[in-house]
Amino acid sequence: MSSETMSSETMTEPDEVQDGFGAPSIASAVEALLLLTDEPMSVLALAEAIKCPADDVWETVHELARQYTEQGRGFDLREVAGGWRFYTRADCAPLVERWVLDGQQARLTQASLETLAVIAYRQPVSRGRISAIRGVNVDGVIRTLMSRGLIAEGGDHGESGSILYVTTSHFLERLGIASLDDLPPLAEHLPDLADLDEVLDSVATGD
After folding, report:
1. 71 φ/ψ angles, rounded to the nearest 5 degrees
2. What's the fold here for domain 107-201?
3. For the whole model, what pTM was predicted?
4. What single-letter DSSP state applies at residue 112?
5. What is the pLDDT of residues 123-182, one digit of tens each?
6. Using a CB cutoff of 8 Å and minimum separation of 24, what contacts does 32-37 make?
7. Which is nearest to 165 in space by CA: 104, 201, 115?
8. Which helix (H) or strand (E) holds 8?
9. Can you give the residue ranges of every domain in the chain?
10. What's 135's DSSP letter?
11. Which fold has domain 3-92?
């Protein structure tokens, strides 16, 4: 089947395809699934999910890959490890590298700094206790700090099973200190620190 035939038969019949699996076309279905998955998807896996013949999917992914290349898109569709997956185009590598490096060097937000301070002074500490101290959900901030290599998982709480977080050696390097003992005293900034444990004990630690 030629690319022209494939385009007209599999990409421009929204009613027929939509009735079958809920997408405007095989091409749009393939794109949607590949944007969602974290791993390469084989033609057979795509065909099973889309509920259409594998031959049609095979022609579709090859046609999409060809179109992305011809159009000079910032991404391409590659067959790797027995499946298909989106990748940023090699021509865009300098831009992507600069963006990633700039992001790693960007300053932490106030929320991130506050959460990092709680972990540094209360470690090992669970996500629930961090949230209790700050009074807000810290899931996103925890992910940011872990991606920066500033904190890591340090085991779990025996009773609740909650993951405990600790600072890393990279954290010490960034602060220019040899150990946690070199952290500045916190009492002068939090005069009620002695009562903190009593307050936290009344709050469910959770995960």
Report:
1. -85, -5
2. Arc Repressor Mutant, subunit A (1.10.10)
3. 0.46
4. H
5. 999 998 899 888 888 998 999 899 888 999 998 877 777 899 999 998 888 887 888 888
6. 34/77, 34/84, 34/85, 34/86, 35/86, 37/85
7. 115
8. helix 3-10
9. 3-92, 107-201
10. T
11. Arc Repressor Mutant, subunit A (1.10.10)
